[in-house]
Amino acid sequence: MKLKGTEILLKILEEEEVDIIFGYPGGTVLDIYDKLYNSSRLKHILVRHEQGAVHAADGYARATGKVGVCLVTSGPGATNTVTGIATANMDSIPLVVFTGQVPTTLIGNDAFQECDITGITRPCSKHNFLVRNIEELASTIKEAFHIARTGRPGPVLVDLPKNVMASETDYDPANIQIRNIETAHKPVPKKMAKVFEMIMNAKKPLIMTGGGVILGKAASELTELARKYSIPVTGTLMGIGSFPGTDPLWLGMLGMHGTYYANMAVSHCDLLIAVGVRFDDRVTGTIETFAPNAQIIQIDIDPSSINKNVVVDLPIIGDTKATLQDVIKFLAEHNYVQQADERSQWLNQIAEWREKVPLTYTQNGQLIKPQHVIETLYKVTKGNVIITTEVGQNQMWTAQFFPFDRPNQLITSGGLGTMGYGLPAAIGVKCAFPDKHVVDIAGDGSIQMNIQELATAAQYKINVKIVLLNNSYLGMVRQWQELFYDKRYSNTDMTYAPDFVKLAEAYGIAGLRAEKPEEVEPTLAEGLALDRPVLMDFRVSREECVYPMVGPGSSITEMRLGTREMIN
Amino acid sequence: MEKKEHIISILVHNKPDVLARIAGTLGGKGYNIESLSVNTTTSYEISKIVMTSIGNQATITRIENQLRKIVDVTQVDDLTNVESIHREMILVKMALTAETKDKIENLIDTHKWKVIVSTNSYLILEITGDKPQIDFALARLEPLGISDITRTGIVALKLDD
Description:
Strand content of chain A: 15-25%
Number of helices of chain B: 4
Structural class of chain A: alpha/beta
Largest interface: A-B, 15 and 14 residues
Structural class of chain B: alpha+beta
Distance between the termini of chain B: 27 Å
Radius of gyration of chain A: 24 Å
Largest sheet of chain A: 6 strands, parallel
Strand content of chain B: 35-45%
Radius of gyration of chain B: 19 Å
Order of helices and strands of chain B: EHEEHEEHEEHEE
Shape of chain A: globular
Helix content of chain B: 25-40%
Distance between the termini of chain A: 72 Å
Oligomer: heterodimer
Shape of chain B: elongated
Strand order of the largest sheet of chain A: 3-2-4-5-7-6
Helix content of chain A: 25-40%
């Protein structure tokens, strides 16, 4: 069967069970868009900026576990995707990004809207392709999906020259051959015996869960292991939701803005079982003082994550789900029973830390505290919501004050820390789960980086809710300036901003505002109940800081606690 | 841990940008490639890259792990800790003067170096050997006036176990 390049693309998207594309048309992809015009199976969401397309596909991918798909034009269309691709790459999110390219005959001539997008994205994608002829189109697209979702997932870019897409070739789906890229390593039994021995000998074990547990769909195994043997659990930002946030064994996030008790636990444990983490500097503080008393087991699918920052005692390279299943099975078969008195001593110690410095804030006077907004959101929704965040204080308060019970319930840019992520990501999530509440917890700085996507939400009636914690500052940068730069607020005052309620209305969505603590709950209730996209502008206490905070270059036991004394 | 030069042998799919991926991945993470040699194997589809990098074992392991993550890389071996042979080649152009001519010819006779171009005014020598042998040759030739030189990267092959 002879098919055009554009037809092959659409056929394979259907075979890959893609149901939605986030994109933006332009010169080199006109032929593809012309084919999309007739497609009944592929829904296309027209974003307002290509960065928004990638974040939306990323949000969709995180919420569903499927590969997110984008389509943009060449040149500036392609370069605008770079931040989104780098965001997905840092957090290992499977995406396939299709970019238009000038005809192969013009490549290298500085043609109109030409750029070497495979060159540009090489260091920030899992892989990329420039399709040089029609014969390799089908296998390349198939391979792109395979690479995106296999092993440690990631974004793959496929650059499609206009003339390749316009030419024809024989298409036989049975004849498409792709390379088998990766095979997960299988942990060896010898290592299981070692795990058993280490757990047996541990008096103060701690589990540290990360994004790899969510990506590896290993949350139920991790939860089973922790609950069965009463092992407390802390997590990285990306690991939040992989263990129920309402479980007494959950200590919250560790690291720079971790809870006091999580940071104390990791600093005093004698066994750290680290699953699907890569020991980011925001988590470890100074490496020399990280988990100084602990033997460390690290389970990760990516060998390059092992011994990169923290040297571990027992590395296990493997799929997190299969490996945890092996651990659970081995412990059960060998009748492991924890020493109840030792374990309760350890849990009591943690309870003391928790009681001494709980996660808290002071509610005073007539100012709305941002933490109060987040707690109230939990109360109003009963936790039945998927949350995206922007980046900065809004993100850290969300991680601290909203108990997440399910994987992929918190969708946030962890590794790259991309401002402007939350709104387009929420749009992607809502497209996947139209019947669920999807809330973007935003800051006034971040939201303005992709505010144009309000038009996308309005056009398609994608009823995302934006909870704007508006302090008229770049709050996190201001916090650093307050604490480490003698309150010299260089270029962080964002007082000059639009009236967000009017702006929302101008975009055709609902805008609400709350200025007093007692208005928080009614505003959230009203905003969530409206059958429209809503922006809720909460004017919060301007100089509230995120605490605890570990200063840069410090041990994670050296926490600033705000109004309290620094506690060691 | 001791820092030393490691010879890493890499099999890759012979694609237009595969070298850029390897150089970019290592360069972007701050690892230096000291020497490099690339060509196809018996199959045009597969190329072999032999590179050297200086570092302690932990650094070299990180380099190997990063290389293995590149989709077009199919195999990575560190040839430093296994039995292997190493060769480099130089092409050296020696200017001939009344003063140096005899000395150069003596050296060539003594070491059985191969002359591949010979004119009245200059010679081009082809010398192959492992790194110490090449360094030895250069130390002898340099005082006699090298007018141009090309040195290949190291190529290396593992012996059978």
